[in-house]
Amino acid sequence: MKKTAAVLVSVLMSFAPVSVGAISESKKEAISKNCSTTIENLKELQHEDSKTRVYLGKYYEVLQLRFITPFNVRLSENTLSNDSFVNNQNDFNKGRENFMIDFIEYQKMLERLIATDCKNRPAEFYDVLVKTRELRKIVESDTKSIYKLANDHLDLVKKIGEKL
Q1: FRET label pair with 149: which of 21, 26, 86, 106, CA 20 to 30 Å apart?
Q2: What is the pTM for the complete model shown?
Q3: Predicted pLDDT of residue 99
Q4: Collapsing DSSP states into helix, strand and coil, what is residue 119?
Q5: Which of 100, 56, 75 is nearest to 153 (CA)?
Q6: What is the number of H-type helices and E-type strands within the chain?
């Protein structure tokens, strides 16, 4: 039964966005039938996502405070050109902010999803599920963007190393 609910959550998270009125009766029945197990799985997902947010938040902060910013300060103190580094640092800061804001919005929607009565209001549950999935994709995009910015910073460091 737990496997069925996990599969149902996975399948539901992958559906294309639709309006509440477009949900089929069979989907409503599946949501209602597996409601309690689905909610349990969503709570586990919420718990794991919270740990991931804390881990990534700390990791991004360490990158910023121990590597990116100190390196840029050293460049400036040594009067080396650092416009690209400053731009990267600003983009990284903005990416961190976006990640935190977007993750909070996603968590709020996930909480709303968990609180929605999927047994008696499956269409509403599905609508909130679609919105939750969209917000999760935004958070995923944020993490990919930050990863790219960190790699861009490393590339800039390598280029400056080649010049010295």
Answers
A1: 106
A2: 0.80
A3: 96
A4: coil
A5: 75
A6: 6, 0
